[in-house]
Queue: 2 jobs
Job 1
Amino acid sequence: MQPDLRRGCRPLTTFESLATSRTLQKKHITTFYNLLQAQDNEQIPTYTKAWENDLGITLTQSEWGKIFTNISKSSINTTIQESNYKRISRWHLAPTRSYRFSPNTSRVCWRCTTEIGSPGHLWWTCIIIQNYWEKICSLINIITGYELPTSPETLVFMLYPSPLAKSTRVLINHMLTAANGLIPTKWKQSNPPTIREWLAKVEAIRQMEELSHSLNGTYDKYVFAWSPWDKFIKDYKPDNMSTPT
Ligand SMILES: [Zn+2]
């Protein structure tokens, strides 16, 4: 049975009106085609502006486009993609949002207990999470030889300032996905994720990627992208003072 979209709480878009129309009009296909073409010029989601206000940054529509494209290609594994989409869309409940629903709750960050706990603060500006990001950057530099800018655009949104070799970008995407993906696992806890947890998370992603590429017949791509990680993890000693723990 066809759903009746007119019962929804918003007016139908032109596309929906045409799609649910019971009669075909002249140049119906052309109209559909033009509407689909127009999708490219649609406004980017409103949460992108919320991030910009929150973090005090400005990104162009093109840069947001690069962020969404990169995330859509960040992994052939949908659970990994999902964790990136949840972060970008501000899915996780920060104190500032829960305070709007329940004014008897605190708006303050549960880690530093001094600053307002907005999503931007929890993912980036909190002094405690900054320390975590410094260690992650240091390790990514050791593994790939690439010095990541310490900015939310790069570390939280995975927007890289200069062209990167594709295999390096793929590996950095996975390592940043792991770093960001661990933050919600410590939601409402005073301590940030540890490097030991990060290493385990990247290794778990590596295993999933190995399996997925193996099944998809693209094992050579997996080997090429992950070889710096394999070399690092083979030589890594947790008590080595030259690497963060
Ligand atoms: Zn804080």
Job 2
Amino acid sequence: MARTEPDRTLEQVASETRARRHRVDLRRFITDVVTTAGGIVDVKDEYLLHVALPAEVVEGFSLPEFGVLAFDYDAAKDAPAAEFVTFGSPVLDRFVALGLELGRVTREYARSSAVRVPPNLMGRIESRIGFNRSRRPVLRATSIEAYERAVFGFVVSYISDERFSESVAVAVDTTNLADDTDLLDESKGVTFSSEPQGFAAGLTAKGRPYSEVLQKALECLQARVRPRLATHQAEVRGFCEKELVTVLGFYERTLADLAAREEAAAAAGDPDKKARIHSKIEASQVERQRRIADIVSKYRVRAEARLDSVTLQVMPKVRALLEVRHKDSIYTQPVFYNLATNSVEPLTCPRCGRRFFSAYPAKDGMFVCSTEEAE
Ligand SMILES: [Zn+2]
């Protein structure tokens, strides 16, 4: 324990504590922004970070591709290559601009009353997860770990001749890149706070790089937007067809009329008139193609998405390691019990990435989500 020197007043100590909290907040903010931008953060010590940013980010925000950032005046003096990051420093402003561009990034921690293995854990697991064609699972080991879920808020716009937007939330488990979107409802009752409470102080969530997490989130988003886009396209298809019928009808009449006049001119032995009418026919045919293309593109619905916000939710979970016997083999399967939502989480299929509660043993020693995948 550090002792406070007697010659410092309480006020001095309080102001230093405040300053320190600001520095730590800045470091966390910068770390979040850099990792969300697909960059890498190397923590040298409490006040010194080495950061690497992707080239496209560097260009847009005049940030260094490789930088040393100091969050303390003395640390900055000791590392001559370091840029001192503090409130009002230009480099901080550029990171704020990048953070704003990427969306608000916040990390929050679940408040959980009991961080311990719940009584009758196996009963809870067996009431939700079914292991088909297998003996009853045996609990081999448990551990309590912190897990991080990244919740992305996207604004998706559907654009044709009209435009409308909706908010779409997508959640990804940063450890195994599982799609957690369907689990968001379960965590609606969980209270989160901005500072680690109890459990989180001693546990750190070890997630994959945010570039991978964001990549996965975009895949989840596309999977959700695709059917909506098809629905919107189907909604306007009727209008598109109606307009096409009108336009095609108009050109059919026009061209029939011109053809009759061309024939009449030929019969009357007027080659100049015939040639004039013939070029009108060709012009009308070109115009008809252009009108059709215009109508089709007017009713084509496009989707655009922008990332609006990122929230990192840290939750404690029990990692229960089960052994399940199928025929002569023993399968080892981790199951997660979320201590913030008090629920057994569905397994994640190693084949297709889907979440599932009914497990089938595959020949390669893994549980999968369907009989077809087990073959
Ligand atoms: Zn599957």
